[in-house]
């Protein structure tokens, strides 16, 4: 007697995958493994002193507000700060067009709840951010897949696909800047073309811009939202990569009518944004330190990227290719055909290096020889050594494949 | 040209109601209005010093962890603290059976995502917590409604309804302690009977226990979860009412297999629990101050409840009735038949007193002469004056109804 739980679960609960995102957040744990698997900013660069002072001030000046429920749409001074900052970045908005979210992952969930119905199509880059795919998958979306190259989403291909018959996609999920996982950036010409497609076919764009401020090379390209004359773009930003992910604060930007619906959905999801971290982050930002902090982080990330690219050049065998990002956190590697990055991971972990196999980033889960490497959270000497270890494993597997031998199948859990 | 947003919204987005919860969080804003409308703990009783010290320590000892992504299931020491505390309260659990949530509102959303499908039935108390109803409504549930009396949900009536033909409900949503909105508590005999019904019919119970520790009178009654021999109960708790709502931290307790599915759903919703507030709250709690803090709050709440009950006795006209809670935050008032609490609100606000009309708490929205009053966040002199003002309005409307006169219809926004 009692509850037969398995028989009661919804489809969403059955579909919800623990593994892909969880692995990202876990591999860092074994101390002797060099993890290139995370999606983390460098913790040693967090402005701890600024946070300490801000927390002290927030909890001294107005603890009754910092510890109380706050408005669901966000702490008004923080919304005003963000509206002002976005306006300086070319996205002219009022505070009423900014909704504070519990990290941009909640932004994805809110937009999915707003637009995605079972079986509808979502335009997804291939590869795309696994956390976005996981949300749309949970809402039972189908994908219209568009490959990514060095200039980002191949918008020309999307244009062709949209010429077909049948219902139009409900949403275009775009990561224009230093895309997770490839690090590639959408060119200006393609941005114009993508907006044009959105307007012509009446398809909203979700512009996920978690990394846009982390450009350490090349020229800034205007965001889709800043050029969005028809209000077809929902823009999404986050403090996670530019300040701290632990505060779980992101934002959605859209016209007021859209924000009102997103707010209605958010109310049911968590009632109120996090007062304490909003008060603290607002105080951190109101000192004017944010831009300087970001500038201070960039040289570290650039140096780490350089170390990674040099290591890959030196240690990966012929047939492997990889991206050369001008910002962000990641390099994307394509292994020689026939290698399976998921199979190879167990041996890599035995060699004390970890990465994220690319499969989960492919919307159709149809490509096994890719991997994502993170450079932002790893100091240069460890990147050098980590990529050397990775090179050994890839070379060994590559040669074994070439000679028809298969390496012994490894068990990740035994590693 | 451009996106026709209205045509693209999902049913959930259309259903998501901004107003009911939003009003709760808003009425407190006008400074000359005495608001009995909130659901807030008393901000002047927040342990601000403890938070300040904890924030200082968390950001000094290990800022890299406090500001970084953390495990989605929650900060391990906080899960261990909660498991230990729950075990002392009769709910024997391991840390692996505790999932930290972004407030218990996220717990509601997660459980709905786990179990609720379009058109399935959810057993709801009448009245019930508006935030729960709003979540289940968003997931298009139908309700099997069970009235609440002074001993909580009338479980005998549920038993009768479950005898009928047709599909069984997927979930029983129970608020056994100082239920929001009535403040009433489920008797021990009914608790046993409810568990028995759950086991016999295989229906899980969600035990929402946000207020259970705030008993300031009468004897403690064991939680459903503590007596749940068949693991049919998902238990939900929160720091909001016993420490601080601004930190947005709650917890779900269930057997590990159920927690695994809830975690899968949570990963898609927000990736990771809030590291900063978890580190801070863990440090606040690890000083051992929590039980003493709760004991320190109770006399204030008791005194405020007493003031409210005395005021209602004195100022409300014949025909009005109300609950006499032994804990929690709320008193529930039933006005004389024929009065409409929603209509009357505009005049009440002109008289500088606010409350929450009861309609939104009735699952079927079929009762208009009820209202929820909050006493926890209002000092005694304001409660006295607020209830006096309320009494004036109710008496006037009551007399007008008796004499066939209708008061002038007021516009809330003009007030």
Question: Could you outline the blueprint of secondary structure elements for this entry?
Answer:
2 copies of one chain form a homodimer.
Chain A lengths: L4 H4 L2 H5 L3 H8 L7 E2 L12 H14 L1 H4 L9 H13 L9 E4 L1 H13 L5 E6 L3 H9 L3 E8 L2 E2 L1 H8 L8 E4 L13 H14 L3 E4 L24 E6 L11 E4 L2 H15 L4 H12 L3 H26 L5 E2 L7 E5 L6 H10 L2 E2 L1 E2 L12 E5 L5 H23 L13
Parallel strand pairs in A: 1-12, 3-4, 3-6, 6-7, 7-8
Antiparallel strand pairs in A: 2-9, 4-5, 8-9, 10-11, 11-14, 13-14
List the keywords.
Aspartate Aminotransferase, domain 1, 8-stranded mixed β-sheet, 415 residues, 2 domains, homodimer, Aspartate Aminotransferase, domain 2, alpha/beta, disordered C terminus, 14 strands
Summarize the structure.
Two copies of one chain form a homodimer. Chain A is α/β, with parallel strands linked by helices and 415 residues long. Chain A is built from 15 helices and 14 strands.
């Amino acid at each position: 007697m009692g509850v037969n739980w398995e028989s009661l679960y919804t489809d969403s609960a059955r579909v919800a995958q623990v593994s892909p995102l969880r692995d990202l957040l876990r591999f860092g744990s074994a101390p002797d493994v060099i993890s290139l698997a995370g999606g983390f900013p460098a913790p040693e660069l967090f402005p701890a002193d600024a946070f300490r002072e801000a927390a002290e001030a927030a909890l001294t000046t107005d603890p009754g507000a910092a510890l109380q429920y706050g408005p669901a749409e966000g702490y008004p001074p923080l919304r005003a700060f963000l509206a002002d900052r976005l306006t300086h970045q070319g996205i002219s908005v009022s505070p009423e067009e900014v909704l504070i979210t519990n990290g941009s992952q909640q932004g994805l969930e809110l937009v999915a709840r707003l637009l995605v119905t079972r079986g509808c199509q979502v335009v997804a880059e291939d590869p795309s951010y696994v956390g976005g795919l996981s949300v749309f998958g949970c809402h039972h979306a189908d994908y219209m897949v568009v490959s990514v190259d060095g200039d980002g989403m191949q918008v020309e291909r999307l244009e062709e696909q949209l010429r077909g018959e049948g219902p139009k996609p409900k949403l275009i999920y775009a990561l224009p800047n230093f895309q997770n996982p490839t690090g590639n950036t959408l060119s200006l010409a393609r941005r114009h073309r993508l907006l044009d497609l959105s307007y012509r076919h009446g398809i909203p764009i979700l512009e996920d811009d978690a990394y846009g401020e982390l450009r350490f090379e090349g020229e800034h390209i205007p965001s889709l939202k800043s050029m969005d004359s028809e209000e077809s773009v929902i823009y999404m930003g986050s403090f996670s990569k530019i300040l701290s992910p632990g505060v779980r604060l992101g934002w959605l930007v859209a016209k007021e009518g859209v924000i009102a619906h997103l707010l209605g959905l958010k109310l049911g999801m968590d009632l109120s944004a996090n007062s304490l971290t909003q008060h603290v982050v607002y105080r951190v930002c109101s000192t004017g330190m944010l831009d300087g902090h970001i500038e201070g982080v960039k040289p570290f990330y650039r140096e780490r990227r350089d170390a990674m690219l040099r290591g890959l050049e030196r240690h990966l065998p012929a047939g492997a290719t990889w991206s050369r990002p001008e910002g962000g956190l990641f390099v994307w590697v394509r292994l020689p055909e026939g290698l399976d990055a998921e199979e190879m991971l167990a041996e890599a972990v035995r060699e004390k290096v970890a990465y994220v196999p690319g499969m989960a980033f492919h919307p159709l889960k149809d490509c096994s020889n890719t991997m994502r490497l993170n450079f932002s959270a790893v100091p240069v000497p460890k990147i050098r050594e980590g990529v050397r270890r990775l090179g050994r494993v890839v070379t060994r597997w590559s040669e074994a494949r070439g000679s028809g031998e298969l390496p012994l199948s490894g068990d990740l859990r035994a590693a």
